């Protein structure tokens, strides 16, 4: 079976290539993985994103907090190993593994200066999602990723697990929306792709098919 | 799949890429010398390429059939007219001073340069190979001529032969003392070469341009901004193509495949 | 290539003079004014001795002007002729610049660039066309030579080489040419015979500024 099949052009990024591209992205723009309010982050920069503290009555300055993600590792269908239940991977899907560091600034009781002590926990999570594409004109388009479900292991009670899984899913989708890989990276600039099919996930690769101009 | 990135085109899309590469090559020029029968010919020529149909042959051949070469030729034929040399006889006439006779005057004819301008097109079929190079920080993939299988000059040889005959007549008209020798001279000169010699001249010129012909189907910076800078906190995301290969893969349809590792 | 101009004699020209005065004719061959020319040792030796008696018949003597390593030469450089004989000068084609014949015998100046009397100038026409000619020295003398290329079918085409042996005469008297207009075939020769003229040239009008 040919690569282009019923179309005239084919472009694909392998699982390894995708992970290298994501590594390059997060290496250049680490602020997508690191969020915090003062005192953890005092200003947005290339490395960190300033977020507001959690407002709460009688808590001057709010509750300070931070969220840090490790660089996500992507596993394209078929899965390289078993996924934590209840997650499964089917054709068209990808799995994403990351560690979420949650930190709050714990205010010491009756400290007249209101000093906080960072309390941190690391939460490994696995997510399942799918790629989405935008196509504007031949050679102009990109793919990004949407997370459909998250599994956080070893969290009890189950309601806390569900809460954290939802929180992480919302956060992942928030920053993944800005992680876009252009077509001319995937086709290495060989042609201007007019997308007709894809992105499809199978055989450890994401494929695009279409015509050229 | 072992490469990080794979891009492939079938023969239909390969035609699109090749035609774009032909247009990008623009006009090529050269000059040289050849012969037409017993006469020397110097020429300058300019050509451009278009069209043709691509056939992909595994593992690494891009066959192009019917590649159109539009050419413009400026030829200069050197024709030695010394075969016309003759002498004006001694002439005697009566004058008021008696009979006066001029001496015999021998006329020697020069070597003339006959300019001929001619434009037409040829169709060439050839086999090209794939050449991948990294030069000055850029990956380049060329299809490079390996073998010319056929050159179809069409009716150009006949038309050029006519054009040369006309140019020779025009040039000879300007030669002093040629008089009625003009027709004789044109006949003798044009009998010295024919379609075969003109065909040989045209084919020689076409072959000069075919030798070493390469079309660039891919050029890309080795390290490039996959994503441009997007704001004060979003610098460019640079990616490096560590390796690039090109080949023709055979299956139910043959495809030109570019593979790269990042 | 071979312009019609008697001031500069070339391969297609012949200049002749009938010597009707006895004495020694010393002459030079440069077409340039004498004050611009370094005297050439060879030219000092060019002379024609005209004996005071006539011969039984008028003779014509030819001098060939050539370019050699040692300059412009005339062969023969010295001649002895009878009164009334004709001497003519032509080049063998080695002289790429034009030449002129200038000298004196007694009180008579013989100058091919400004002909007065007893002089013949010929020109063989190599290209077809209409040639209007006049005197470069400003007299009212003028004329026209129509040069025709015979086409196939013209009876003169087949016999062209024989036609080359026929010349046409234009008789110049004073400032008048008779006939004023002649028609010849390409390759043929026109003879101008000059008598009692004020020092004239036969020059293509396209070579004369302001004409």
Largest sheet of chain B: 7 strands, antiparallel
Low-confidence runs of chain B:
none
Briefly note the structural class of the backbone of chain B. Answer: alpha+beta
CATH topology of chain A: Bactericidal permeability-increasing protein, domain 1
Taking pLDDT < 50 over at least 5 consecutive residues as the criterion, the unreliable ranges of chain A are: none
Radius of gyration over C-alpha positions of chain A, nearest whole angstrom: 20 Å
- Helix and strand run of chain A: EHEEEEEEEHEHEE
Shape of chain A: elongated
Number of helices of chain A: 3
> Distance between the terminal alpha carbons of chain B, to the nearest Å?
14 Å
How helical, in percent, are the residues of chain B? 10-25%
Mean pLDDT of chain B: 94
The strand count of chain A comes to 11
Report the top-level CATH class of chain A.
Answer: Alpha Beta
The total beta strand count of chain B reads: 16
Oligomer: heterotrimer
Question: Can you describe this structure?
Answer:
Chain A has 213 residues and is α+β, with helices and mostly antiparallel strands. Chain A has a single domain (9-212), classed as Bactericidal permeability-increasing protein, domain 1 (Super Roll). Helix content of chain A is 17%, strand content 42%. In chain A, strands 2, 3, 4, 5, 6, 7, 8 and 9 form an 8-stranded mixed beta sheet that branches. In chain A, strand 7 and strand 8 (140-152) form a beta hairpin. The model of chain A has no long low-confidence stretch (mean pLDDT 94). By secondary structure, chain B is an alpha+beta fold. Chain B has one domain. Chain B has 4 helices and 16 strands. Chain B has helices at 11-25, 156-173, 181-191, 195-210, and strands spanning 5-10, 28-36, 39-50, 53-57, 61-80, 86-88, 92-95, 98-101, 105-107, 111-135, 138-152, 214-221, 223-227, 237-240, 243-249, 255-261. In chain B, strands 2, 3, 4, 5, 10, 11 and 12 form a 7-stranded antiparallel beta sheet that branches. The two termini of chain B are 14 Å apart. The model of chain B has no long low-confidence stretch (mean pLDDT 94). Chain C is mostly beta strands and 211 residues long. Chain C folds into 2 domains: 1-113, no CATH class; 115-206, no CATH class. Chain C is 6% helix and 46% strand. The mean pLDDT of chain C is 90. The interface between B and C is medium-sized, with 28 and 41 residues. Strand 1 (9-14) of chain A pairs antiparallel with strand 1 (5-10) of chain B.
